[in-house]
Design a protein that fits this description.
By secondary structure, the chain is an all-alpha fold. It has 8 helices and no strands. The chain has one domain. The chain is 73% helix and 0% strand.
Length: 203
């Protein structure tokens, strides 16, 4: 399989998993994800604005940093943020009126889908922008696993969403974030993401 074809297939598969996880499992139970997606969900629950559109807008400052300090990540994640945001908003039209699964199962399965989607894209240095992009830049400068960094950013986003969701939803969202981070960490560690040397950030 050619490198370009592999890139496109992984990009679309990863974005598909993320989009389905959000729309079919998270939104049904008013759950939050972490990072920029969590911010997009908070905005959606508050003002009913499209999640994907919010992700693009909020990602702009981080993309400016990437352009200034690590342009390879800027270009590698540009397709990720655009495709994932468009797919998230596209699949929003198909959110089932009745949840497909129970709340706990939805939190775990949705989180795993997001983690696997992000993880397989990280193997090709693709990200969906936002805090994932920031995590990639930090990981490139340090020995920290990108999945571990994402867990921290994601939990911070869930905390920020406390005024928007109930206590039960906070617990389920935390479970979902842990599932996402675990899946991402396992895939990136198995793929040796941090085992390959990367050029340092320009500071």
């Amino acid at each position: 399989m050619g490198k370009g074809l592999r890139y496109v297939l992984v990009l679309f598969l990863g974005c598909l998993l993320i989009s389905v996880g959000i729309n079919f499992f998270f939104v049904s139970y008013h759950l939050l994800d972490g990072g920029i997606i969590g911010v997009g969900l908070i905005a959606h629950y508050l003002w009913n604005v499209p999640v994907g559109m919010t992700i693009i807008v909020v990602s702009i400052p981080i993309y400016i940093l990437a352009w200034m300090y690590y342009r390879p990540f800027f270009f590698n994640s540009l397709a990720g943020v655009i495709v994932s945001s468009l797919m998230i908003d596209f699949f929003a039209a198909f959110i089932p009126e009745t949840p497909l699964l129970g709340p706990l199962t939805s939190a775990i399965l949705g989180g795993l889908m997001l983690g696997v989607g992000a993880g397989i894209m990280f193997l090709l240095d693709i990200s969906t922008g936002g805090f994932d992009l920031l995590a990639q830049m930090i990981s490139a400068k340090t020995t920290w696993n990108v999945g571990v960094l994402i867990v921290g950013f994601d939990l911070a986003a869930v905390v920020a969403g406390i005024p928007v969701i109930t206590v039960d939803e906070i617990i389920l969202s935390t479970i979902a974030v842990i599932a996402t981070g675990t899946a991402t960490t396992v895939i990136t560690a198995a793929g040796g993401v941090n085992a390959h040397p990367r050029p340092p950030l320009r500071i």
